[in-house]
Amino acid sequence: MDVLDAKYPFFASAREAVADAAVSLPELVATDAPAVERGRERVERALLDGTVESESGRFPDESDYDTQGELLSYPIARILVSLLDSEPAIEKYAAAEAATAMDRVRGDLATDDGLRSVPTPTVTLDDLLDEFDLEDAVRAEGTAPRSGSAVGGSAAGRAPVGSGGGGAGPAADHYRVAVGAYLSLTSPSWGESWRLVNRALADGAVRLPRDDLLRALESAVTERVREGLPFELADDGGIAAELESGVADLKRLLSERTYAGPVDVVAPDLFPPCMTNLIEKAERGAELSPPESFALMAFLVGIGMTPDEIVSFCADTSLDAEGIRYQTEYLRDDRGTQYPPPTCETLANYGICHNEDDHMQVAVDPLAYYEKQVAAADEITDWRERRADEGSENEEGADATD
Ligand code: SF4
Question: CB of 360 closer than 6 A to ligand 1?
Fold first, then answer.
């Protein structure tokens, strides 16, 4: 087992590493090994925070990083999420595993680009494409079609594990993706620009900037994680029985933190300071970090806004419509929002909350704080009504000048 297996536990090589290690999962669970608690944390953070990164923040290049525990926590998490018996939970878990993995991939590629020099094992784009059998479907723009070898025109094959990657060399800005692969990796529901008709298409290949290619690959990771879930687990004792209390804890946590229904009123003046700060930051044109944009989107979905409303609400910010639609897709289910935004504690850890006016005393998360504010307000004008009024005034103004 090596660090790359722990970083990317859905890779085939990681599965083999688990099999080769001949570790008994029931035994791990029975002895309450560290992997079990980490597996539980993985699911909890996936469902509540949209990431599976450990709150301890240990990184693979730290000496006390528990490679084996980290890797084994993945199959444990998959068992736990199966036992939750909830389709939205599975979707959310798979999306969080994929989002976390792709954050790591971006970090690895930055290393390969020479933008930073951390001596940890990294994957290359070649590795990722090979993993999903896409090596012949994607090539860096300006390079010859791959003939069983390189992506991007450099040396072939998977970089030796632990080498720091380097198989793809400096990354290209644009790639050509075979149209079949493009259609299976992407969805028109991500926004207009993802519709094939809006992409440059030549010789059976779609032209994609690197960021879009990575977003498309994130869906391949989501699919890989999603595969085989939920497991069928016998409920006659064994591992399901051993994990019963962990599953009960997760269910309790979810029911405590799942709202009966969204507040369904949009009153920006009553938003908690953390969300106002994020909106103002985006209005200044600054990019939000992934935890920041996740927290903001989860909050806006949580108060009952539709993706269209969020796009309109964020029209004058650095947040782009496609990114908003992509993120909100995983935050909504048929009943509206299933999972609330991260807790105040988590947001404080990310530096998003500064606990203004000490109001952590009154709420566990921004949505709970907002609900209290709404309940205490005398009169509220919903932003949606204001927007509708402004729209009809503009129409009347236009008619008057016709
Ligand atoms: S205490 Fe909670 S609601 Fe208030 S600013 Fe911090 S994260 Fe937001």
Answer: yes
Q: Is 326 in the pocket of ligand 1 (CB under 6 A)?
A: no
Which of 240, 257, 274 is the last residue in one of the domains? Answer: 257
The alpha-helical segments, DSSP class H, found in 133-209 are: 179-185
Q: In a 3-state reduction of DSSP, which class is residue 274?
A: helix
Atom of ligand 1 nearest to the CA of 370: 3
pLDDT at 172: 83
pTM over the 0.70 mark: no
Number of domain units in the chain: 3
Distance 365 CA to ligand 1 centre (A): 6
Query: Is residue 103 a part of any domain in this protein?
Result: no
pLDDT along the chain (402 residues), means of 10: 89 91 85 91 88 74 73 94 84 90 91 59 91 93 60 35 36 89 86 85 92 93 94 75 85 65 83 94 91 89 89 94 82 56 80 78 80 87 84 61 56
The gap from C-alpha 50 to its chain's centroid, in whole angstroms, comes to 5
d(CA 385, CA 59): 47
Tell which one of 299, 358, 360, 361 to mutate to probe ligand 1, the residue whose CB is within 8 A of the most ligand atoms. Answer: 360
- Assigned domain for 95 exists: no
Cα–Cα distances in Å, from 169 out to 80, 108, 149, 200, 212? 39, 12, 14, 25, 19
Residue closest via CA to ligand 1's atom 8 equals 274
Q: Based on the domain organization, do 333 and 240 belong to the same domain?
A: no
Q: Is the CB of residue 296 below 6 angstroms from any atom belonging to ligand 1?
A: no
Looking at the structure, tell me whether residues 124 and 159 fall in a common domain: yes
221 and 125 together in one domain: yes
